[in-house]
Design goal:
The structure is a homodimer of 170-residue chains. In chain A, 35% of the residues lie in helices and 26% in strands. Chain A has six helices and eight strands; from the N terminus they run E-H-E-H-E-H-E-H-E-H-E-H-E-E. In chain A, strand 1, helix 1 and strand 2 form a beta-alpha-beta unit. Chain A is α/β, with parallel strands linked by helices and 170 residues long. The longest helix of chain A has 17 residues. In chain A, helix 1 packs parallel to helix 2 and helix 1 packs parallel to helix 6. At the A-B interface, helix 1, strand 4, helix 5 and helix 6 of A face helix 1, strand 4, helix 5 and helix 6 of B.
Chain lengths: 170, 170
């Protein structure tokens, strides 16, 4: 079970970034995204719509108190993605069979999250995007399984095309 | 030489996504991002600022006419990242020694770009984010070299920390 925890979502400023995070989490085979900050019904609906069309049981849930959420899920190993952390290559193998909560911050993450995380992990030592950090982390965690994965419950499947667009409907 | 071509940037709607794309391109060792759509001085300045602080000669340039740009750079192989394309694993090895223009669209990409690209390449067959697609493509292209890469001209280096934040200044 892999849960992404997105901190401090702001509807106006973060709408597209949080959507890109959730789509990345879903396509890279995480199970769920929970987010704190402002509750955003349009964001939630847009992800559910993608599930209905392209398959998967990927879940999205708003939570008020991320620290309480972490404390209530003690069987999970807590990973925090930050460019200040330790190179992802050093830890990713030992995380492959764990239940994970993967914390993905925004611009400012409170110091407490660095402390309570079992692993602060970096994807490059550069300022990048939480979207690309999450993609790389999940790619390494899943051994690239996402690249040709198909969701069994899809109504629409995207087919590989050399030029143009091709889909199949079920 | 790897140039990212971002189509149709809109200042209001795409500001953060295009910034995340450029930061990802820089950290994953592309050489340059060119973008069309609306010219955005604040976006350009923010990337130059990151270079000044964290190093790299990563370049950013506005272009009016992306098709003309492609026609003028005939020695480049054109790659278009799209979920409708062919699995990245099939082509990435043969692209490792090429000069590349990597086209990264927004929501709508005109059909001409599917036609003029030498390779339409997908990173998963799901709707994801252009940011995560670009990160994965460059990661595979560079054999993961970005994960512990250091820019020699950095004034500030981020150091690996188990908890908290640590930097070195030069």
């Amino acid at each position: 079970m892999i849960i992404i925890l997105r901190l401090n979502h702001r509807i106006f400023r973060d709408k597209r970034i949080t959507t890109h995070l959730a789509l990345t989490a879903r396509a890279f085979l995480a199970d769920k995204i929970v987010y704190s900050g402002e509750k955003d019904n349009n964001f939630e609906k847009s992800i559910i719509k993608v599930n209905e069309r392209f398959g998967s049981k990927f879940d999205v849930e708003y939570i008020k108190d991320p620290l309480k959420f972490i404390h209530e899920n003690k069987k999970f190993t807590i990973v925090h993605l930050t460019c200040y952390g330790i190179n992802v290559n050093k830890f990713v193998n030992k995380l492959k069979n764990e239940n994970l909560i993967v914390i993905v911050g925004g611009e400012k993450v409170e110091p407490i999250y660095y402390k309570i995380s079992n692993y602060n992990i970096s994807v490059t030592k550069q300022p990048i995007s939480e979207v690309s950090a999450l993609a790389l982390f999940l790619h390494l965690l899943k051994n690239g399984k996402e690249l040709d994965y198909e969701f069994k419950d899809a109504k629409v499947k995207i087919l590989e095309s050399e030029k143009g667009k091709s889909i199949a409907k079920f």
